[in-house]
Amino acid sequence: MSERKGINKYYPPDWDPSKVPKRQKIGNQDIKVRLMAPFSMRCLKCNEYIAERRKFNAKKEITKEMYMNFKIIRFHITCPRCNNKITFKTSPQTAGYVTETGAVRNHQPKSAIHKEEEATPKDSKPETEDEILERLEREEQENQSYQVLKDKRKRNPFWQKQDGLKDGDGNVMENLEKRLLQQQRENEINDHLEQLHARQVHINEHGGNEQMINSAQRMINSDLSTREEQDELADEDAAQRAFAKFRSEKKQTVEKIEIESSEDEDKEESEKEEEIADEEDEVVQPSKRETSKAAASTAFNPKIVLKRKKDVPVKTAVDVAPTKALDIGPTALSTLAGYSSDETE
């Protein structure tokens, strides 16, 4: 927000800003900053314990030292008990801080110690070209891993790299799944071992391995014998069914043949009877005129009886005609005229 009463500065028309003298910049000027202790330290004068993250008003000094085009900065603080001057500076190679004067670090992780040893070797000999190339390659790899870690932390602030996981990604969920699978596998192995132990105890209680083997052999033999008996019974049943089926089919065929033969015989007999009937009709049956004469003669001579031939078999159809002629007596006019009552009809 702007001020309630703005300050108006008057610049005359003939004012030339180039004629105004400029302030000279101080090259190594101390800058006051507010910071926290980067690690726990102990004062060398009064043995005062300075905890990590304790706040101080410090002076910031930019040194002329460089590391891979990174400026190294020095900080000046005082002991809160004895006003002893304590200095520490940045360490880009270890990505941390290093104490200089007035205090010592209480504890230091192994990784930081290893990095400091690499950063400050004991031999003060100048590095060769091969050593410089190896160091630069190692630092480049570390820088790449740091960038990967930085990208991972952007998406998940609790992400941590673990070499034991797949591709070294260090995914927490994959680690959890891997542990769960390993735990399930261990539980299955323990259950299987318990079953084996219980089985061994049961075997020992029932006489040992030999007795169990003998009992198992007996059970196998009994199973084999029962299976053989069942197979034999099944074969017998199948054979009986096959024979019964064959007999029934044979009986059906015989009955069919008998029926066909009986039908043929009946047919032949009927044909013979028809032939005989035709012959009788031709031989035995007289004409109408002869029958009328016979009827007239029987009327005058009742003692005369017509005899049939012995060789020809008598049929009912032949017997009907003379009976009718005999039953119906001829009249006087018919006898005189010489014809019977059948002709009138």
Automatic annotation (TrEMBL):
One of its GO terms (molecular function) is metal ion binding. Residues 260-283 have a biased composition (Acidic residues). One of its GO terms (cellular component) is U2-type catalytic step 1 spliceosome. InterPro entries: Saf4/Yju2, Yju2. It is found in: Nucleus. GO terms for biological process: generation of catalytic spliceosome for first transesterification step. Its main location: nucleus. Keywords: Metal-binding, mRNA processing, mRNA splicing, Nucleus, Spliceosome, Zinc. Residues 105-130, 245-302 are annotated as: Disordered. Belongs to the CWC16 family. YJU2 subfamily. Part of the spliceosome which catalyzes two sequential transesterification reactions, first the excision of the non-coding intron from pre-mRNA and then the ligation of the coding exons to form the mature mRNA. Plays a role in stabilizing the structure of the spliceosome catalytic core and docking of the branch helix into the active site, producing 5'-exon and lariat intron-3'-intermediates. Component of the spliceosome. Present in the activated B complex, the catalytically activated B* complex which catalyzes the branching, the catalytic step 1 C complex catalyzing the exon ligation, and the postcatalytic P complex containing the ligated exons (mRNA) and the excised lariat intron. This is Splicing factor YJU2. It comes from [Candida] railenensis.
